[in-house]
Design brief:
This protein is α+β, with helices and mostly antiparallel strands. It contains three helices and seven strands, in the order H-E-E-E-E-E-E-E-H-H. Helix content is about 25%, strand content about 25%. The strands form two sheets. The chain has a five-stranded antiparallel β-sheet with strand order 1-2-3-6-7, sandwiched between helices. A two-stranded antiparallel ribbon has the order 4-5. A hairpin with a 5-residue loop joins strand 6 (about 115-120) and strand 7 (about 130-135).
Length: about 180
């Protein structure tokens, strides 16, 4: 497992269906110590759950913040912190690939997205940066930015498939099989 695993309890990750996951998040005014601390906590929660991306709404914070680490699990951690990420350009093609989400545990579906995107974001020093993403990073940033707009990967699949997944999760939550949000 990557990152610093501590015995301290991580921030709890919300499980769908939850209205807080459907709410569009607001922009961060300035990346300060409070935001940096929040991002460190998000990374810790993400690593603890063996995830590769986490958006602030998933921990019940309605702000436009994303953390990612797509480095191989056996290699060194390569955490990324994106504040107010905004997609400036998307390639015209679409690639389909399986996606999962820490807010929809053990659920997977193929989602089609542009293979390449260019984005703008504020880094941990409040500096404006641009990044061109391809492959897994492109897929991951699009998935996480969706969270900031209240969109889950199941919103990209058929209503039938989405309802099956959400019903399964609602049932698991009710039975106590999933950690309470
Ligand atoms: Ni997700």
């Amino acid at each position: 497992m990557k990152g610093n695993v501590t015995t301290m309890a991580s921030l709890p990750i919300l499980i769908a269906p939850d209205p807080r996951l459907k709410k569009p998040a607001v922009a961060v005014e300035r990346v300060d110590d409070e935001i940096r601390h929040l991002m460190d906590g998000m990374l810790e929660a993400m690593y603890a759950a063996n995830g590769i991306g986490l958006a602030a709404p998933q921990i019940g914070v309605s702000q436009r913040i994303v953390v990612l680490d797509i480095a191989p699990p056996d290699g060194p951690a390569q955490p990324m912190r994106l504040v107010n990420p905004e997609i400036l350009w998307r390639s015209d093609d679409a690639v389909s690939g399986e996606e999962g989400c820490l807010s929809l545990p053990d659920q997977y579906a193929d989602v089609s997205r542009p293979s390449r995107v260019r984005l703008r974001y504020l880094d941990h020093e409040n500096e404006l940066r641009e990044l061109e993403a391809v492959g897994l990073l492109a897929k991951c940033v699009q998935h996480e930015i969706d969270h900031l707009d209240g969109v889950l990967f199941v919103d990209h699949v058929s209503a039938v498939k989405r309802n099956i997944i959400l019903r399964k999760l609602a049932k698991a939550k009710k039975s106590g099989a999933l950690a309470p949000a």
